[in-house]
Amino acid sequence: MTNDDKDIPRVEIIPEECKGCELCVTQCPKDCLYMSDKINQFGYNVACYTGESCTGCGICFYACPEPGTIKVFKK
Ligand code: SF4
Ligand code: SF4
To answer: I want to staple 46 with a disulfide (CB 3.0 to 4.6 A). Which of 11, 18, 27, 74 is the partner?
Structure first.
């Protein structure tokens, strides 16, 4: 990641903490999250960021029932 990338709103999802509930995916107004076919150690498919279009609105952060799983980086 370059320094420039850090100035763009984005999210990071910690796959080991995700429970695969899909709430973040269904709530994101920009459709920039998706359920991947990756499976974590608990057997859940994990949510991922497409890498584009995040506005840093934080809706996914508040929708996620697992504290600390989604990190939102604003500008
Ligand atoms: S911060 Fe907003 S736009 Fe970015 S992934 Fe979360 S819900 Fe979507
Ligand atoms: S809301 Fe949280 S636990 Fe549910 S799929 Fe998204 S990151 Fe995973």
So the answer is: 18
Range of the domain at 27: 9-66
Flag whether 73 is in a domain: no
pTM of the model: 0.91
Residue 16 located in a structural domain: yes
Sign of CA dihedral 66, 63, 24, 58: negative
Residue 47 CB less than 6 A away from ligand 2:
yes
Query: Ligand 1: which residue has its CA nearest to atom 8?
Result: 28
pLDDT in tens, 4-59: 556 899 999 999 999 999 999 999 999 999 999 999 999 999 999 999 999 999 99
44 touches 24 (CB < 8 A): no
